[in-house]
Amino acid sequence: MCIICIELEKSLISPKQAQKNLEEVASEMDLEHLLVVEEKIQRAEEKDRFFTLLKNDQTVEFCSGCYCDPCDCDWGTNE
After folding, report:
1. Alpha-carbon distance 71 to 62, whole Å?
2. pLDDT of residue 3
3. Ramachandran region, residue 2 (left: φ > 0; alpha: ψ -120 to 50; beta: rest)
4. How far apart are CA 72 and CA 79, in angstroms?
5. What is the pLDDT of residue 79?
6. How far apart are CA 37 and CA 39, in angstroms?
7. Residue numbers of the domain that contains 28
8. Distance CA 15, CA 53 (A)
9. What is the pLDDT of residues 5-64, one digit of tens each?
10. Cα–Cα separations (whole angstroms), residue 48 to 38, 41, 55, 59
11. Is the pLDDT of residue 76 over 50?
12. Helix-strand-coil percent breakdown of the chain, rounded to 5?
């Protein structure tokens, strides 16, 4: 396992930093491991986006009739 993989798995570097480091050493890596590292970076980015969405999540009560917030029909709380 390379240093980029280790640091990425331990969350010592961000996916963006890992991508930058990978660009610097890509010519020295074999293609198979390069693809593995790119996949790990992509998964880390997705994980970061997911946690950001969770952190910013606000509970919204959608209307059961029009499924909008605020309600655009006469089914919801505006009755």
Report:
1. 7
2. 93
3. beta
4. 11
5. 45
6. 5
7. 1-79
8. 17
9. 999 999 899 999 999 999 999 999 999 999 999 999 999 999 988 888 777 766 556 666
10. 15, 10, 10, 20
11. no
12. 60, 0, 40
For residue 32 the two structure tokens come to: 């198979």
Residue 19 in tokens = 């991508």
The count of structural domains within the chain is 1
Mean pLDDT on 61-75: 63
Q: What is the pTM of this model?
A: 0.66
* Continuous segment of H or E residues that includes residue 45: helix 31-56
Q: 28 with 45: CB under 8 angstroms?
A: no
Task: Give every CB contact of residue 5 below 8 A, 6+ residues apart in sequence.
Answer: 36, 37, 40
Q: Determine the pLDDT at residue 49.
A: 87
Tell me the two tokens of residue 23: 């660009």
